[in-house]
Amino acid sequence: MKPIFYTFLTTLLFFSFSINSFSQDDAIKVSFGSINARSIGPAVMSGRLTTLDAVESDPQVLYVGAANGGVWKSNSAGTSFRPVFDEHTQSIGAIAIDQNSPDTVWVGTGEPWTRNSISYGDGIYKSTNGGSTWKNMGLKNTERISKIQIHPTNSNIIYVAAQGHLWNPHADRGIYKTMDSGKTWEKILFVDKNTGCADLSLDKNNPEIIYASMWDHRRTPDFFTSGGKGSGLYKSTDGGKNWNKIHNGLPEGNLGRMAIEVAPSNSNILYSTIECEKKEEKGLYKSEDAGETWKHVSKDFNTTVRPFYFSRLVIDPTDENTIYKCGLNLTVSKTGGDSWRMADPQNIHSDIHAVWINPNNTKHVVIGTDGGGYRSLDGAYSFEMFMDLPLSQFYHISVDNEKPYNIYGGLQDNGSWVGPSESGGGIENKDWSFTNGGDGFYSFRHPTDKNIVYSESQGGNIVRYNKSDGQRKDIKPLPKDGDPDYRFNWNAPMHISHNNPERLYFGAQFLFKTESRGDDWDKISPDLTTNDPQRQRQKKSGGLSIDNSTAENNTTIYAIGESPLDENIIWVGTDDGLIQVTSNGGTKWEEVSKNIPSLPKGLWVTSVEPSHFDKNTAYVTIDGHKSGDLGKYIFKTTDLGRTWKSLATETIEGYAHVIREDLKSENLLFLGTERGFYISVDGGVSWKRFENQMPKNGVRAVVVHPREDAVILGTHGRGIYIIDDITPLRQITKDVVKSKLHFFNTKPTLLKLTKGGSPFGGAGNFVGANPRNVAYITYYMKKRHTFGKMTLEVFDKDGKMIKSLPAGKSGGVNIVPLPVRLKNPKAAPTNNRMALFGSIFPPALPAGDYTVKIKKGKDVFETKVKLAYDPDANYSIAEREAQHAASMNLYDMTNELGYMYYAMQDIHTQSSDLIAQIKKKNLKKRIKQMAEDVEKYKASLVSLEGDFYVDEGEALREEISTLFLGVSQYPGKPSSRQMEKLETLKGKMRKVHQKFAVFKSEVETVNTLLQPEEKEPIKIKTFEEYMKD
Amino acid sequence: MKKLTQILGILMLSFLTVTVAQAQDASLDDILKNYFENIGGEDEWKKIKSMTMKGNTSAQGMTMPVTIQSMYPTYFKMEMDFQGKKFITAYNGKTAWTLNPFMGGSEPTRMDEEETKSMSKQKFQDEFIDYKEKGSKIELVGTEEVDGTETYKVKMVKKDGDVVFYFFDTENYVPIMTRSLMESGPMKGQSIETFMSDYQEVDGLMVAFTTEQKMGGNPVFSMTAEDVIFNDVDIEANNFAFPSEEEKDENEKN
Predict the structure, then answer these.
(1) pTM, 2 dp
(2) Residue A8 confidence (pLDDT)
(3) Which residues, numbered 673 to 692 in chain A, qualify as contacts with chain B under a Cβ-Cβ cut-off of 8 Å?
(4) Residue of B nearest to A13 (CA)
């Protein structure tokens, strides 16, 4: 096996700058091959960061962890990042770098900020090569890890604060310790199955001393309780063998979530934020005797707010009186907690969760918030945002029918936004616009009115936004006299009818319908939920700190779907386990979840999908994780809910969020779960995870574009992903997957106009990829091609081969990009930059039919590919053909001149060699003259002097390429001046051809004279030979 | 008793068939043995001291002719021709150098320490030949699906600590992909995958004629050979050396 040439890449990296301007029995075992999903962000509002750490001796190296977006690493102190954890679980709890050996990094998975939408982890990971690869080191069932502390002088000793299961009691929690760098673990502090470790602080000056905060807490679908008898502050002085409570001075009664930190500069000073029973006793406590006694030093709002979400304190490593408190805002005290200031509240996102202070320059502060990461260099007075983290957390998305289409969606704590599926220069941060604030969920553009966008914020606050004047109307259905309070889910469902663009549904415990854009609502159902008071405790939710944010609203409608085939059939799913269906527009409803015998009661119906092919068919996904049930529940009915079939298989990981049926192929199904995206090509018999370019992120929304044949995914933590062309998937059948090679039918490829973007915005601005402006040749091979020759050639309508491309070798779907350009011109050399650029890119292929032939071993497979001009572009076909004709003239000239140049060079070389060998004086003189003449003439055709920058010349070769650049870059017809210049150049070329003919005839004469000398004649390649080489 | 043995025999056979089909039971020795056999023999490959590959490379939608010369133990030279300009990257065991008219002007330049170190890791001879003597450790890590095909995943830790994963097709035991981390440059730490296909026979040995490289899943480089020549007498150490002044002038004139 031959060597691998890694570093030749450096040579080739040059190309990257220039290209951007001018890619069961019934089970069908499919392989996705080279189908890719492109990530388009957005990063402009980013997403929740939960933890971060940097290398103290080299703070350019920074790792950030996201709630559901993996771990990202920067080598530029945050200017730009790349993801380093994409093969693993994406919910990150804690990151700790071994500062003695910074290539060793520990990541504890499972976010500790236990909001209702939180994900879960699968243990602790270690890297020893600076984050390039990771190994799971255990603690797999801890579900979430809140802190990791590494012994300051013995890197084999690690302490892990395992917060544990949120939705059920479980013993895998507490404090774990390893003394052999993660090979084995010992649980050194365990309180009970309901109490985990929420914070941990190692005294780096006396590493046998450890402080811990234990937290008794639980979440259920409608309730959250923070605090209980299990909570407490603990201290060990012998490396965790023995523990004592350190409550002297703390409030009586139950305690909740507490942060605890020992000052790195003074081991006697401790700070802790306390959540307790009495409001006046909450806040910041300080100990000046290493935990012996505590004093209540502050009741500042930010020290008491939402402890479950904000209990994190970071003390300046050089000053025991400087404290940073994470919270709704970031507050900083320089007086040991006595007084506080807010850090840059106008410019940073609220909800701060993580802070890192550079111990060697405490003005350098990095923070993680619900809206991404920020960096300050002036001690947390002003912050700049990291613009390169596409961690947006979508709940739902929708698309419109513009060209290019736009994507609408609502984000966790980041409102509702809209952005394009493609944009000149890539999809930049500036391409996204804001439509509504708060936590965003569903967002739809009106199907026919471009200006209207429906969005919502948490708890059913639906608005109608008008883009043309920026005004928002509150259209939340209000209870009429006599109505009970409306119960809206935090993530209240909106649904637009497929049958009537003016019809919009909205769900509380009742289903509402409007056909006047929200100005009037009809209640078209009774209470469709269980209305179980045991699940209606959200007003008191919070435990020791009431937290009634609507996040715990339960016994509400969660999913709505009107049948595309019959507007009277409407499906509803509730968050307390009911599936309701009506076939008469809401007059009568039937509860059908009871017809699913294997389904536990009271779980969350996450999506309902009425079929596009049969009105009695529908799909549902159900999620039980909030009741501690991680089962996969996916069901299908073909008789309006009377009977159901399970579609869940072993291959699926993660609880199910959404199921979507393809719009054109009824056996093609899409599934989004908390752990990724799955596709079935056989109607749900088997599922395969789609992981090409996609991390194991929670996929909450899937939309099939009706016109574009694209699938758009909304992930909760990695933004939007698009698979641009699913037509191959629609054509997969049992016979196809058994074929040696099967071509898929493809739509005509539109020759689109390319646009540039806005350059020079600095590094670190996320840009989402556009779809490639190429045609695709798609085919399926049952087996990977490894042995023998395989070639792919493209022929034009005249049977001329115009391209030879590297064939895709994958087993499964192969997608080979066909660049819609002719072969590169073979130009004469030049030392003029513009001219060189003008001879790199050939003209685009003309519209028309092309034949593709694949030769695989002895077999030949053939298909047709069609290229068409974009009917929406502003240029008529006549114009585009005029441009093409002119470009082709110049392209041909470039090739011809190149040919003649090298031919003359060849003549010169061969002649020069001959001169020495010829004895006859006259002949020798003749050949010498010819060599000189041809050399002189050849040199006059190109410009080779100068410095390739500001000292450049121009001869005929450069004139041709410069004009080509101008003509070919504009899709419409060339200007009259350009056409005149073209004629001038044609004239000049005629002269060159004539001169070349003269030289050729001279060569012939010389060759005749050489015959008696028994010398080899001078050989000149033909034009065809030149172009072929 | 006989019937029982028969039944047991059948059960064992079906058990074996199942496990073979699941490709779990091949040992590392089996894989290497089959691999060398299928590519023409370990001893035959040892006789190869130089190789010239002429073909085309495709990068970012453009195709250009390329020639790669290599010689035992660590001589390399890749030469691409683009619009009359030559692009060269070479290493002769001591000096790594490059000629890149687009980036470094028209003079060949020596590579820096980090890049030279990177070049020095490429060896002419197949890493699996005499791997023990070379100080490498190998381990069968499991199986993985690559390009829609089941492969055996073999981890090699070289003497200098570098790790490369090789993925051997379970049906024909040739590697169809390798994976390792970029050593230097702006892409340091990123995963790079090299895919091999179009194995064809040259002088009784199987050579992958097409190589494609991807970084982070994105194709960055691919090459298809038209011609492969072994032990060409014209390949000698001088071809790979950093050009002298005269040679530089010749290059410039052309």
Answers:
(1) 0.86
(2) 42
(3) 692
(4) B220
